[in-house]
Amino acid sequence: xxxxxxxxxxxxxxxxxxxxxxxxxxxxxxxxxxxxxxxxxxxxxxxxxxxxxxxxxxxxxxxxxxxxxxxxxxxxxxxxxxxxxxxxxxxxxxxxxxxxxxxxxxxxxxxxxxxxxxxxxxxxxxx
Length: 127
Description:
Layout: H1 6-32, H2 46-86, H3 101-106, H4 114-126
Helix pairs in contact: 1-2
């Protein structure tokens, strides 16, 4: 028996998927709209142009990193929707036990119970 309201979870996941898709679109459109600077168009001085170029590069790299993180989260959200569809939502993918409903409420795309999540993080910390 499910320890969560499937309709509510689905609604949350769909809203999160839409938000992430929008964020990714906005971030990538912003990066695509950055135009290369014409070195002859501004007589404001080389130092000003270099600072502007550095700001543009930093902003583009930041947007790329944020978009990449959003794409990873989007894949997790989609996987949670798939688990809802196939009846495995709310089960730990390692041990098969139920994931605490409070954990699912806070993180609807969670795949691990707290115990396996802690073991996973401890193993990652070793490297």
